[in-house]
């Protein structure tokens, strides 16, 4: 079947049940679990609770697959928390980008005005690059409910195979490339050279024939970002991890921080300083 990690496969199977409940809250199973475990919240945010059943405990352990790779598709906007939920196409959360505090603005519906985006409010609340992304999101109308959309399927439907890939970290490098380009835009950095140890990711971006259904979306996003500047200012390369150990170590170090990291030369972490010194010696 192509699944090498049985634990990840089982988790992806359980995540399928979580997805079914999200998509059909009127089913008998969903109503029973909701009455017992998430009466006042949703299945992705509900706590484990006291004396949970084996089924509920298993679902709680697997639901992070859904959280990692799903995004809200906006309808009425009344279910989507602006700052805590993932609803931007880029899958970035808005919490760290807000300019000011607006106590009365907490749901996406608060950003709407007569079925359209309230452009003045959006522009005043978010920085330009986030506001631009928000205003480009199409709105289906106030009669349609908000719904979750699986990122790695063109129809937005979860599959065990794609859930398995998320659990195994298959998409991490691809998503990181998109976010890295967005961060370069924020900092106005140029020129930009992008190195990835994922040959598949680089090929998907540089060769349209190498991108299939589950990679086409993010590959197109990266191509658009690259095309917004001249070819000499933004270039994408493949480099084996063993040949770029320092960059990989810095990325791994930063993954444990919830906020951007900035170091002075004399305050560089010792664990990274040793790698830099060693790399310098090897290159001389």
Automatic annotation (TrEMBL):
Pfam family, one: RVT_3
InterPro entries given in the database record: RNaseH_domain (IPR002156)
Any one GO MF annotation of this record: nucleic acid binding
RNase H type-1 domain ranges (all copies): 179-254
Protein name in UniProt: Ribonuclease H-like superfamily protein
Organism: Striga hermonthica
